[in-house]
Structure formats: C-alpha cells, structure tokens
Amino acid sequence: MTQTLKTFTSLWAMQPHDQTGIKLPYEQVCEMVAEAGYDGMAIDLGAGDVAQAHEVRPHMERYGLTPLIVAFPKSVESLRETLVMAKDFGSPFVDVIGQVMPLSVDGMIPVIRQWMDMADEIGVPVQFETHRNCITNDLYSTLCLLDAIPEMRICADLSHYVVDREFWFPLSERDMGLISRILQRSDSFQGRVASRQQIQLQLDFPQHQKWVELFKGWWREGMQDWRARAEGDCIFLCELGPPEYAMTDAQGREMSNRWEEALQIKAWVAEIWQELGGDR
Questions:
Q1: Coil, strand or helix: which one is 32?
Q2: What's the whole-model pTM score?
Q3: Is residue 224 assigned to a domain?
Q4: Cα dist. 56→31, 44, 50, 165, 266 in Å?
Q5: 60: containing domain
Q6: Quick one: pLDDT at residue 280?
Q7: Among 4, 3, 6, which Cα is nearest to 236's?
Q8: Is residue 115 included in any domain, yes or no?
Q9: Domain count, the chain
Q10: Distances (CA, A) of 49 to 1, 7, 56, 95
Q11: How would residue 1 be classed by pLDDT, with cut points 50, 70 and 90?
Q12: Residue 280 belongs to some domain of the structure
C-alpha cells in the first residue's frame, strides 16, 4: 500500500506571504513555494476567482506544483463548473466550503448528496472543509451530517471549530471525542493554530504553546488514523492567512512572519509523518 505525505500552501496565504505586505508576482510566488519543498498550492476561489486561477496555472505547471481547487459554491448547481475546471487543472479533489446553508440538518443532507453525486458524475472527488460561514459551520450539525451520510469525507481545518465552539482549555474528554470523530472521516488536513477566541495564533508566543501542542496532537491523530485506512497521498495544507486572519498591531503590521511559521508547521508535520512510519 503506497502512502505519501504531500504538503501544500495556499495562494491566498502568499498574497502577501509575510508581514512586509508585499504582494509578489505569481512567477516569484511559485518559485518560492517550489524551492521551499511544497508539493502544491491551493487556489481559493473565495479569496480569488477563476481568472486568477487561469493566470497562476502556467506558473504552477512550470514549477511542478499541483493545484488544489477550493470552491465556495453559492448554489447547488454552481459547483458543477468548478468541478469541471478542477478536473482540467488536475486537482486531486475539490475542497468544498458550501455557501448553501439550510437551517436544519434535514435540509442540509440533500444539498451534500447532490454535490457528491455531481462530483461522481464529473469524476472529481470532493471533501467538505470544516469551516465557519458555510454548510459545515457548526461541529454538532456536521457530526449529524456524517452520521446521515456515511460516504461524506472531510477536509479538517479544526481551527474553525475551536473558535466556533469556544472550547475551554484543556478540552473535556467529551469534546476531544467529538473532534476525533471528525478526524476519523478526514481525508486531508489543514495547518493553522487557533484558540477559543482567535482563529490564527502566532506559533512562538509563550502564551500560545498549549494551543500549539493541542493542534500538533490532532494532526498526529488525524494522520495516524488516515494511515490505518487509506492509501495514496495524504495532503496537508499549511494555510496561514493574511490580515484579518493574521493579527496586527496598532499600525496594521502583522505580529509574526507567516512564511516562516508555515515552514515551521510543514517541518512539524513531516516529523510527525516520519514518526508514524514515513512514506511507504
């Protein structure tokens, strides 16, 4: 059984890539990302658009970077065009942050099933990201969806649920168990550290270390579970967003270097992967 760790960063996170505020041209972004050892880059159609995706594509191809399409469909049918584009781009799957948000789980179920059927028809896998302001906004309703739809697969960005549920630290055994249920259905993972009040923490601040260790433990748990049931590429996306995801001081300057922090997360994840047995 072949299992390989593939690490990605996000085009959104590279515009700008650090606290200088400088937005680099796509050619330079792709060169920088490839030289850092990333395997691919996520193209976020919420932060950008289709025109941007086509503009950056040749630069990604030149540097051997795999594109990962992140979709924000505002209607059920609008995902179709994105799936077709993702197949053409060679995206390993489409990360869906669905903007169709029925109030009830019973209303959500047919939306998820229609998107999954559409993906099967076109021939591109879909994963539903755990994300605020979308159909998976709430941890509890998402768990109900997973119970109702056994085939539903998750892209785990747990930072959103830490903020959404305002988890106290340390988390209770019950709450840790709920997160474990999400990880057991996750086929890819995203790297950002949150606290109960902040979506994106600086990694080296002393007061944040308890949250850093919590997330490193979740990444280990998620990848270990993935290795026990899956094969192919385990995709981990280091996604540290620019302001207002990144906290700023009174002058609007970011309080840490996100490029260096993303490389730190990348190194942590590679170390965890090796401790779990490495590529095989």
A1: helix
A2: 0.97
A3: yes
A4: 12, 12, 10, 36, 23
A5: 3-275
A6: 84
A7: 6
A8: yes
A9: 1
A10: 37, 23, 11, 15
A11: confident
A12: no
